[in-house]
């Protein structure tokens, strides 16, 4: 085989390989597609279907598919359920995303510092983590929101404050695993500053399980926000899916649609995130296990 | 009574259409004897042991032909239930790494007693008493104290002795030892072999010793089987094989054993190696599988698989059968 | 000896944690908008001027902060978690009254989750590519992604309207007469749906965890040894493999008590189960801050205690840790 005749094969990066592995997995692609649908609903929905979810447009407790003014039925006040779902998508994604961003930022930062520097910093940061892990998440968030105010920023902050410990532990474990590797020692002995090593050398290699965890964190944040809204602790000026379910609680047997449809929306959104997270996990595992 | 307790005939194991891990392997194991199976990693020796015990590790590996007669009974035809009865009581196996081969959550006393109770109707107390006896028999001092200990609390040598005790608890006819000392320190290795020999003398167990270490073979075995790429290439008594190896591969293996020389250091010869590596399943070509690495190979070798030929108590599969360079 | 010093160490750090929780409570009272006195009184409680003055005096709110903190710590250490001006009883009493039902719900939900989750995980590991395995994976994805209160509500609709075989609210039927056995059975009857709802999420997680763990264990050398000893397959799986495979599930269950407590808040709300969760929910509605804060700190203490117990349990099961 003459060397000129060998086919040219471009080497692919681990990231590219993981991406194609991800695309080969049917469940992950389904999850991605569902997520894209929800995102479209959030962005374009309110524009295309501009009924105000707070406006009373029909008779209370109209069943679905009977009245064209309220296609999916109406709630106990006569508000359009479909409008609620359409407008709720944006809230859900925004709060879920913001809370997840906070969780991941705090968690990665604390976990990286603890795992990389070790010693006293590690001990104290782990005590801090343990403290926040001991507080029951929903109860703590409920307390914060009650004491301060049920606005979207407070909600996102509360969710972030209770969720970061798990991410911190995961990050710390990854850093502890990666730091003793040869290439890290080499980078440090070449004179790299700690900050550079942590963020540009170790973190990219720690990324795969963190990315998987991030997908699941968004899902958890969405469930969390739904729970708070269900309990009436959400932002009352915003129609979120949890709020629809919570406000129609007492009518649930006679008006199953008021509770089923919003819940289905939450379920499908979180399901798509779980599928994506699972897919990412499978895509990353064989190739990137050895770091 | 037949001299052979175990007769393996034409054992063939296939790896899901890719190739044969074992290709028509045949040998006899006589009562009270030890046979050493040698070869480099990848030659199929471990797979042979697992095939005899029918402990195939995956569904992709299938026994596609042959007979394995243990005391007159063909194990390959036996039902799953019969095989379970056979394991532990007529044929037993010990593995390479005693740390991972023992269950970390149960005491060694429990695990040995489990073997004892499986092979006979004894109650807990009697089983424990017998366990103490077994521990003493494998050379563990102060056995009663170790009954309640867990595997991670023992040293490597002791753990392997525990494995031996578990295997011999049922008084099997055949013990298969798959690289029993590879994971242990050299000093401990000698002790383990001594232990095995002592127990063999007492109980008459026949042993199949699988190893890549010619030194272990010299110590323990009565007969030697040399395997390469799933086939037997040579067989004979240990004296014959070590003194006058005929197959080029066997010669290469023995030549690789480092030994001290009376020559001064700078006159020591280079340690010989067998060039190349054992071919993977997909890479095996027609003809003699050893040909690519063989100094004596010619075109005839590369085109025709040499048959296993018997003469004077030895077998050899080589076109250059008597080891001469000319045919 | 080593064990005792280890437990002692854990106790010491546990006490430190509890102290931190109490300090957190203190901080929240003082950092929240509004006058600390009205936070302590609760906004809808007895917020009359003389009550507020009384509070200021007894809590020493005009004192420097560190004095206040010390007095607060002493108060709480003595078991005084404040007073609910809404219910007119000490918070500690309220909590004790509602603790039992919540513990019952938690215990049964978690037991269900661990037992069924492990069983499903083992089943799907034994036949990893079979139909059963796919169904189990699907169930676990669904159980994990659905909001717990929605699952509960779907069950309420199912058993309230379609198959009324389980009660859908409360812990007891007050119309049921009879001896202790009848009343116990009544409670258990009411327990089914809430416990199932709470447990489903964790059952989903544990079945996946157990499946992965079991698959690993089945490949291990000691399982091979067990088979080589000729033990029956049931013994190989049930005795040798299972105990090793279940370890990660137990660890995870122990770590998740905080989340489970939170989940129970939502489940209690849906089923009107008279536990700490409904109390918390009601306190939120009524701005009964003392009760809310009291529940928060006592739940945190519960989590700390369970963490220690889980640690001990783990050491008992896995001899390598000792």
Walkthrough of the structure:
- The complex is a heterotrimer of chains A (about 290), B (about 325) and C (about 325).
- Chain A is an all-alpha fold and about 290 residues long.
- Helices cover about 70% and strands about 0% of the residues of chain A.
- The radius of gyration of chain A is 23 Å and the shape is flat.
- The C terminus of chain A is likely disordered.
- Chain B starts with a strand and ends in an 11-residue tail after the last strand.
- Chain C has about 325 residues and is mainly α.
- In chain C, about 80% of the residues lie in helices and about 0% in strands.
- In chain C, helix 6 packs across helix 8.
- The mean pLDDT of chain C is about 85.
- Chains in contact: A-C, B-C.
- Chains A and C meet through helix 4, helix 5, helix 8 and helix 10 of A and helix 1, helix 6, helix 7, helix 11 and helix 12 of C.
Give a short synopsis of this structure.
Chain B is 32% helix and 23% strand. Chain B has helices at 45-53, 80-86, 98-101, 108-118, 124-137, 143-146, 156-168, 186-203, 214-220, 238-243, 248-255, 299-303; strands at 4-15, 19-30, 34-38, 61-70, 73-74, 91-94, 174-178, 206-211, 223-228, 231-237, 309-311, 314-316.
Write the layout of secondary structure elements.
The complex is a heterotrimer of chains A (291), B (327) and C (322).
Chain A: H1 14-24, H2 26-48, H3 81-117, H4 119-134, H5 137-147, H6 152-178, H7 182-189, H8 194-230, H9 241-247, H10 256-288
Chain B: E1 4-15, E2 19-30, E3 34-38, H1 45-53, E4 61-70, E5 73-74, H2 80-86, E6 91-94, H3 98-101, H4 108-118, H5 124-137, H6 143-146, H7 156-168, E7 174-178, H8 186-203, E8 206-211, H9 214-220, E9 223-228, E10 231-237, H10 238-243, H11 248-255, H12 299-303, E11 309-311, E12 314-316
Parallel strand pairs in B: 3-8, 3-9, 6-7, 7-8
Antiparallel strand pairs in B: 1-2, 1-4, 4-5, 9-10, 10-12, 11-12
Helix pairs in contact in B: 4-5, 4-7, 5-7, 7-8
Chain C: H1 2-31, H2 36-41, H3 49-59, H4 65-77, E1 83-84, E2 89-90, H5 91-126, H6 131-145, H7 148-162, H8 180-218, H9 221-228, H10 233-255, H11 257-271, H12 276-285, H13 289-317
Antiparallel strand pairs in C: 1-2
Helix pairs in contact in C: 1-4, 1-13, 5-6, 5-8, 5-10, 5-11, 5-13, 6-8, 7-8, 7-11, 8-10, 8-11, 9-10, 10-13, 11-12, 12-13
